């Protein structure tokens, strides 16, 4: 692993950690409607009944991992 790949790896880890501490939240109403409540600090949700949108968070993580993997592949030594 060269220096550029290490930088990409650190950047990917930093972005994923940032997404973990500042996740997306949603809120479910009584009729089954789901509303996005935006992003907030993990320990201070936007409302008491808001929950972390796990599906969106995992999708974001996968996107960052795929982009980071492609970047590492393109930056490998020939």
Could you explain the architecture of this structure?
- The protein is an alpha+beta fold.
- The protein has two helices and three strands.
- The chain has a three-stranded antiparallel sheet with strand order 2-1-3, with helices on one face.
- The radius of gyration is 17 Å and the shape is elongated.
- The relative contact order is 0.21.
Distance between the termini: 12 Å
Main pleated-sheet profile: 3 strands, antiparallel
Q: Helix and strand succession?
A: HEEEH
Principal-axis shape equals elongated
Radius of gyration: 17 Å
Number of domains: 1
Strand tally is 3
Quaternary state reads single chain
Strand order of the largest sheet: 2-1-3
Mean pLDDT: 94
Query: How large is the share of residues in beta strands?
Result: 15-25%
Uncertain runs with pLDDT below 50, 5 residues or more? none
Helicity range: 40-55%
Number of helices: 2
Structural class: alpha+beta
Brief summary of the model shown:
By secondary structure, the protein is α+β, with helices and mostly antiparallel strands. Helices cover 51% and strands 17% of the residues. It has a 3-stranded antiparallel sheet with strand order 2-1-3, with helices on one face.
Keywords:
2 helices, alpha+beta, 3 strands, 78 residues
What's the SSE blueprint?
Elements: H1 3-21, E1 24-28, E2 34-39, E3 51-52, H2 54-74
Antiparallel strand pairs: 1-2, 1-3
Helix pairs in contact: 1-2
């Amino acid at each position: 692993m060269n220096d550029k790949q290490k930088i990409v790896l650190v950047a990917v880890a930093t972005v994923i950690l940032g997404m973990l501490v500042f996740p997306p939240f949603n809120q479910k109403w009584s009729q089954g409607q789901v509303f996005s409540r935006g992003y907030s600090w993990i320990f201070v949700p936007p409302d008491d009944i808001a929950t972390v949108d796990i599906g969106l968070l995992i999708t974001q993580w996968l996107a960052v991992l795929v982009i980071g993997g492609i970047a590492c592949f393109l930056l490998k030594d020939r």
